Amino acid sequence: MFIDPHAHMVSRTTDDYEAMAAAGIVALVEPAFWVGQPRTFVGTYVDYLSSLVGWERFRAGQFGIRHYCTIGLNSKEANNEALAEGVMEWLPRFAMKEGVVAIGEIGYDEQTPLEDKYFRAQLTLAKELELPVMVHTPHRDKKRGTSRSMDVCEEMGLDPSWVVIDHNNEETVRETLDRGYWAGFSIYPSTKMGNARMVELLKQYGGDRIIVDSACDWGISDCLGVPKTAQLALESGISESVVRRVTYENALTVYGKSGQMQASDWLDPDPIDQRTLFEGNSILRGGRDPLVETAPTRRRDNLLIE
Amino acid sequence: MPVTSLELLREWVYRQTPDHAEWLDAQYARLSESANECDLHLFLGLAPRRLGKQDLALSPADLALANRAYPGWNPSGWSLDGAARIAALLTFRGPRPFPDTFQDLVRTADARELITLYRGLALYSQAESLTFEVGEGLRSNMRAVFESIVHRNPYPRDHFDEHRWNHIVLKALFIGSRLGPIVGLDQRANAELARILLDYAQERWAAGRQVSPELWRCIGPFAESVSAYEALQRALAGTSDERGAATLALTASDTPSARTLLLTTPDTTALVAEGRINWDNLTLQEAA
Q: Does A272 contact B at CB distance below 8 Å?
């Protein structure tokens, strides 16, 4: 069983959902993010947030995957002040919806004053609502941007054990862990972290407070980043308990602090009206073993469309 | 004895979760006086967190009271937090007309919340003014959202015009949903719907697909006017559920042609006459 605690499913296809379910992913967290095209109306942003708590959750449920999300104003769009002000007014309402496990992904992109302003405002909101935080660390000037993100979290009075610093690499992980934060790693080809490198990091750092995710989105990325990393790690001699922590338990522990995510959601779904929003996962009870080979090959091999 | 739907909902919620009575009292008191929509948002957010999401526990007597409070209202399958949320909507006195508030709630609802909001439709004040939001819910691809409007909910029966009524029956068939739980299914049957459904059945058959036997229920009373006998004859030759359904439809039609067709299936016709086959049991269930 795996959790992918960072997956932008609005940008992915049903083939991906099928492959993820077949590979043993039982739950995922979809952070609110920049969808590639800037939103220029508050309303389009609001509808996007609605889709995270509504339609996308339903879509995931059809494949037997429990869908959670984080709500936030991302760093890129924080630079559009009129939009940002409008979105900030709506955030508290969305943050109270079911299945919202954190405020995120928030933080810095270019590290502008506006990004800083809305990062801080959202950290305050997370504190008020007692929600964890998912921090996006910048691609450029990464090391300083990551340190600064943690400085600001502390300035705003957040408890590091409630904050995931995501998109770490070899250069940032030591400080992130030493300061008491959760360290997220996005297994994302070319730009972020490769899974062979990830295995080396697991050898060095073990499984405490480390979280593996795919961050799959509209770019060339792999929705099987978590199970593939688990498989590679096991083949490389990393212990099962470490693999389990970084691909399942740690994410559940930190995002579970929201009170909105628990293992019984997928292991023992309530016999309630939610039953209609979740199809159940037949491979669920079967396995912990990564099953990336069993991902369907429908697109290539199935000629008949019925 | 409680009589209004609001009184019933509150009674059921308090009965099932007595530990929260004080909190609920304070919340409902605030909602009934305050003009602040934030209070309503807060309550809707907190209800599942505080009360839990278990099924609302209802006895047959409760369901009978529900039906008396609002004919056709069937809250079986509701959740505890859902009942508390709808009670809050019925209690709330806000600054804007209710339809404006409702539109805003639907716009930002999460998947489960949306189902709850729609389940209460028939009970809201100015229910007739919620047409636009109801239309949005019907267009939803989330089957459970669609069903929250059309199943065990008297709202469509009471507020839909014929076009929209016919559309929901057809959509229910399209998405593989049951027709039986639609309140007023027989009452609102009409010749136009029978014609649409007959076309639909023939289209399905042409594509080599099955049709739901429930469809014949809406065609039966109009079998003559829409010339459905040939299709019904085909259904009689189908699965046992189809045979049961076609027999029920022909019995309801009760025309000379229908009676002639029924002569070809005397056993099933007898079971229909005895009430042992009906729309909830299309095939005779042998006792174990």
A: yes
- Domain extent, residue B39, equals 5-174
Distance from CA of A48 to the nearest CA of B (A): 10
pLDDT band, residue A298 (cuts 50/70/90) = low
The percent of residues above 90 in pLDDT, for chain A, comes to: 85
| Residue B114 burial by Cβ neighbours in a 10 Å radius (0-12, 13-18, 19+) | buried
Do B209 and B162 share a structural domain?
A: no
- Residue B189 in any domain: the answer is no
User: What is the arithmetic mean of pLDDT over B56-62?
Assistant: 97
Q: Are residues B156 and B225 in the same domain?
A: no
| Digit-coded pLDDT (tens) for A175-184 | 999 999 999 9
The nearest alpha carbon in chain A to B111 belongs to: A54
Instruction: Confirm whether B279 is domain-assigned.
Output: no
- DSSP output for A219-234: SS--TTHHHHHHHHHH
What lies within 8 Å, CB to CB, of B35 at 6+ separation is: B93, B94, B95
Say what the pLDDT of residue A283 is: 41
Residue window 140-159, chain B: list those with CB within 8 Å of chain A: 141-144, 147
Same-domain pairing of B152 and B251: no
Total count of domains within chain B: 2
Would you call B70 helix, strand, or coil by DSSP? coil
Q: Do B199 and B79 have their domain in common?
A: no
Q: Are residues B81 and B160 in the same domain?
A: yes
**With bands split at pLDDT 50, 70 and 90, how would you rate the model's confidence at A190?**
confident
Q: Write out the two tokens for B184.
A: 């007023």
Query: Which member of B54, B108, B111 has the closest CB to residue A58?
Result: B111
pLDDT digits (tens, 9 = 90+) for A26-41: 999 999 999 999 999 9
B24 & B128 share domain: yes
Q: Which of A195, A184, A177, A157 is nearest to A255 (CA)?
A: A184
User: Is A49 in the B-facing interface, judged by CB distances under 8 Å?
Assistant: yes
Q: For testing the chain A interface, which of B40, B119, B142 should be mutated: the one with the most A CBs within 10 Å? A: B142
| CATH 3.20.20.140 matches A2-299 | yes
pLDDT in tens, B115-124: 999 999 999 9
The shortest C-alpha distance from B51 to chain A (Å) reads: 13
Per the CB < 8 A criterion, the answer to whether B94 and B86 are in contact is no
Amino acid at B222: F
* HEC-encoded secondary structure of A119-147: HHHHHHHHHHHCCCEEEECCCCCHHHHHH
- Tell me if B283 is assigned to some domain: no
Distance from CA of A147 to the nearest CA of B (A): 35
pLDDT at residue A287, as a whole number: 41
CB contact under 8 A, A276 and B143: yes
Nearest Cβ partner for A273 among B46, B82, B142: B82
* Chain A residues inside the 8 Å CB shell of B37: none
CB-CB under 8 Å, A276 with B108: no
Q: How confident is the model at residue A191 (pLDDT cuts 50, 70, 90)?
A: confident
Q: Which of B110, B148, B150, B175 to mutate to test the interface with A (most CBs of A within 10 A)?
A: B110
Q: Rounded to an integer, what distance in angstroms lies between the CA atom of residue A209 and that of residue A86?
A: 35
User: CA of B45 to nearest chain A CA: how many angstroms apart?
Assistant: 6
Whether residues B81 and B164 share a domain: the answer is yes
ipTM of the complex, rounded to two decimals:
0.84
Full-model pTM: 0.90
Q: Are residues B118 and B237 in the same domain?
A: no
Q: Is the pLDDT of residue B286 over 70?
A: no
